[in-house]
Amino acid sequence: MTYHHGDLREALIEKTLEMIQHHETHLIGFRELARRLDVSRTAPYRHFENVECLLAVVVEEGFQKFVDALKPVVKNGAFSDKARFMEIGVAYINFALEHPAHYQLMFDQRFSQKGAFKEVEILTKEAFELLRQTVAACLGAGASKKESYDIAHLAWASVHGISKLIIDGQWNYMRDRQKFIRHSCERLLTLI
Fold first, then answer.
1. SS3 of 25, please?
2. What is the pTM of this model?
3. 6, 50, 129 from 164: Cα distances, Å
4. pLDDT of the chain, 192 residues: tens digit per residue
5. What distances in angstroms separate CA 112 from CA 17, 23, 117, 142, 184, one per listed residue?
6. Three-class SS of residue 125?
7. Are 73 and 88 in contact (CB under 8 A)?
8. Most CB contacts within 10 A, which of 64, 107, 140, 155?
9. How far apart are CA 163 and CA 103, in angstroms?
């Protein structure tokens, strides 16, 4: 993709995602982005203070898409609490597989530092809270908030691990990926 007089900010984001997708994350810098988009070396600075700010915007965009993917599942009144819990897991993994570049960067340690990236922090908490509230509904009124957090963290870790292994090509031999994803998320029901 070569930039042709338009939205350079969006072109920088798209080129960044493309580089992540092609395992070129280590090459991401304003000089390289400018070269690939055929703009001056200083042009990216008109939109982002530095590369970290550009990457933070990509992370924010990823988390917003992630939250947007989870909300319809949580709000779907046709699901029982346990079915909703399972479907959140399926939605989580499918989001990761549909947006692997965003997903990789979303969980980069740089962006999880408390107070460093406020919007990322807000969206991360919102996504987790959707899961935790669903867990709490499954457990019922007698369960403690700590128990709902513990189970939500375990479920999150499970679907995160599955997502990462599939994205990284560790399970390319799988014949029916969606069947495996659904079955794995059904097994998570044993947590509740």
1. helix
2. 0.89
3. 35, 28, 21
4. 455 557 899 999 999 999 999 999 999 999 999 999 999 999 999 999 999 999 999 999 999 999 999 999 999 999 999 999 999 999 999 999 999 999 999 998 888 878 778 899 999 999 999 999 999 999 998 889 999 999 999 999 999 999 999 999 998 888 899 999 999 999 998 888
5. 19, 21, 8, 32, 27
6. helix
7. yes
8. 155
9. 9
